[in-house]
Amino acid sequence: MDESHSHLSLFIEEKEFCMIHFSLRRLPLALALAGAGLLASAAHAHGTWLAHIHGQSTVMYGHDGADTDAYDPAKVIDARAHKNGNAVEAKVVPHEQRYATLEADKPGVLGYTLRSGFWHKGADGKWHNQPRSAAADPAKVEKAMLGVMYSVSYQNAREPVKALGYALEIVPAVNPAKLEEGDKLSVQVLYEGKPLAGAKVSVDFFDHDADQVTTDAEGRAELKVAREGFNVLAVEHSVAHSNKSEADTVNMMASLSFESKHDHDH
């Protein structure tokens, strides 16, 4: 992210809410109006995950639970849901306050795509929410990318595990909501339905110093559940864009969120 890009932060009244019961902490929901919408992410600074806020399955975008950005809800597409292992209808509900929620009938798993769109870093050193071809002088564009994010969220511990079929996806070997903090969890990273070797899976997206586990030749990695309560795993993958006049790369991020079981012995 270009350091010179300033945020105009609007803070919603600080309320006690849970991000799928995320520690029941009081957190400000910071909605930063970022000009044309989502800010481009040059590293892993921004991501997306699903949180339960005031009873709604809310699409979040930002650095972590206490630092989230506003976005154009039209960028959230392709909602998917499973219930008892079967696909059920899911829809994206846009809100005027610049966010979106998902709706489905008591789903066991929810997922969506957040398409942040084309971004280029111009001669002015700033990121613009446009393809390279839209720049005043495309030859002076330092870099250009298409940003796409995918997120899958396990809503209960009873749902059987099944991939939702997104282009980039973290698929757990078991329903992670059955596990407790410190338990081992095996995952497989799939890109276009095939194992992705060498991918680095962050065991805790909200902790920027968290361990990363590299997938093997079958796209598999073993990690430990990082938190009691709300967890977000994340992985990134980039491929060349087919049209260099628009972008150099397609930069993808995928997250897997769930609430681990509470240790009742403590």
From TrEMBL:
Q: Which Pfam families match?
A: DUF4198
Question: Signal peptide span per the entry?
Answer: 1-45
Q: Which domain of life is it from?
A: Bacteria
Q: Which UniProt keywords apply?
A: Signal
User: What's the protein name?
Assistant: DUF4198 domain-containing protein
**Which organism is the protein's source?**
Allofranklinella schreckenbergeri
